[in-house]
Design goal:
30% helix, D-amino Acid Aminotransferase, Chain A, domain 2, alpha+beta, globular, binds pyridoxal-5'-phosphate, 8 helices, 284 residues, 2 domains
Length: 284
Amino acid sequence: MQEYVLYNDAVINRENAAIDMEDRGYLFGDGIYEVMFVYNGRPFAVQEHFTRFQNSARKLEMNQPFTNGQFAELTNELIEKNNIINGIVYIQMTRGKGPRNHLYERDAEAIVTGFAREMNPPKEAQVKGIRALLTEDIRWLRCDIKSLNLLGNTMAKRKAADYSCAEALMHRDGICTEGSSSNLFIVKNNVLQTHPANHYILNGITRQFVLDIVKELKLNVREEAFTIEELAGADEVFITSTTMEITPVVSIEGDIASEYKIGKVTRLLQEKLKEKIGALCHMK
Ligand SMILES: Cc1ncc(COP(=O)(O)O)c(C=O)c1O
């Protein structure tokens, strides 16, 4: 089947899309991206993803060529042309091409590319939970920017897989930050806790939805950093992300060794998030 991709402001046949060898995204990882989940042929939380895309662009002084409406239209076109029912849409923007030079120009013309892929939410992991590896957070100090530079994340994920774990949870000097591609929550005595949205973590869209649900349910929540000892002593642990939704963690190894039961707070939040997704994506 023909595959269609996004190239700047058009959705075109993949065979006709080409990236220059001196694109700054390729040379320096000088760019940003978003991943949206598609349910029932509809993208979830496009507006929220666009807002974060704009924020990342602003923080890197990149010119962002889209309006909210264009971003949503192109996302829908990618989904429709590729006949995606359940899957993801990936959109990235680099600072474009030019002779290799660390110094970037503020008026550089951005290059936007994107694709769509079939994917199902990880049902089994959500039901049974996952094993995770706790390891040092070696990333830079602007984790709030959804940048293409992901080596700290990919190295942590590789290490986790080598320990037969599905995710790497990270800490900086004993303070838990987030997962390699997810946010981290703990529950202790029915109080939820997650790292505040500052430069040490990416403010996940799923994290924000979970915090909204928590507030709607009037549960107690603290957006405050917690230590690896607090992680070890938690009643429930779960991660959140666009592709993992809410996934319980049932054991952690590496810098601590702990086992967890999948608790009622995690189950309740999973159910409420599904309801929200169902309502926003018109699912039965
Ligand atoms: C480092 C990191 N933190 C958190 C998340 C979760 O963000 P979201 O819920 O927007 O997918 C991701 C997603 O890829 C991530 O890479």
